[in-house]
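Anyone up for a design puzzle?
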């Protein structure tokens, strides 16, 4: 039925993220589908404070990748990969 499931994850809401990953991983396992856990780091997180730097961007991306990795460990056998993007949430989700 499904070949690939994209599960957008809002890392700022860990309880909601864990519940949605549990449902998505169950769907992926039941349908032998690939699961992609994705999060978008909004570009305004560092830009709004006026101190944007490549180091800050890298720090946010590494932190997001680590958090997605922890959620990936909970997928219980689903074929899963993670994806971290930087940019505006609406535009970036369409680029995936």
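Challenge accepted. My sequence:
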């Amino acid at each position: 039925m499904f070949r690939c499931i994209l599960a957008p994850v809002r890392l700022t809401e860990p309880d909601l993220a864990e519940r949605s990953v549990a449902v998505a991983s169950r769907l992926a396992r039941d349908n032998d589908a690939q699961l992609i856990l994705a999060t978008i780091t909004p570009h305004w997180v560092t830009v709004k404070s006026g101190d944007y730097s490549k180091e800050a961007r890298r720090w946010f991306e590494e932190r997001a990748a680590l958090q997605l990795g922890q959620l990936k460990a909970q997928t219980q056998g689903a074929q899963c990969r993670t994806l971290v993007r930087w940019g505006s949430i609406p535009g970036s989700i369409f680029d995936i």
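A detail worth pointing out: The mean pLDDT is 84.
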